[in-house]
Amino acid sequence: MSVDDPAATQDDQEEPHPTQTLDDTVHQRVRLGVLAVAREADRVEFSFLKKQLAVTDGNLSRHLKVLEESGMITVEKGYAGRRPRTWVTLTREGTQALDAELRALRALVLRLDAPRPVPDGPDT
Questions:
Q1: Please, which residues bridge with residue 85 across strands?
Q2: What is the C-alpha separation between 59 and 54, in angstroms, rounded?
């Protein structure tokens, strides 16, 4: 298949390339990590996320704000004893966004792992 061959790309035009369905809000490494870790538990404590994702307080806070504003997580502040705590919970929208992202990534991997035709030519 050649990129400049209109006949070769005709089939590709029927279905969007898997990368077109990636969500920029979800796909960013830290935010994808937050959603993935939150999916594994009912709620996740801020310091656990910070350690798991190897980010600073400020960096994690900024990403949590983006996810919260997108409706993908809820952030609950409270206390454990006398110590302030912040917990993150995945919302239904967040679960759906993570599922869609995983489907897009699987489709991309399948596409890239598919056998490629051997080119015809004297150098084969």
A1: 78
A2: 10
| Structure tokens given for 110 | 């399948």
pTM of the model: 0.81
Residue 117: pLDDT band (50, 70, 90) is: confident
Which contacts (CB < 8 Å, 24+ apart) does range 50-55 have?
55/30
Please, which residues have CB within 8 angstroms of residue 50's CB and are 6 or more apart in sequence?
Answer: 56, 57, 60
Helix and strand numbers (H, E) in the chain are: 6, 3
| Residue among 41, 16, 26 at smallest CA distance from 96 | 26
Strand partners, 80: 83
Place of tokens 């991997």: 109
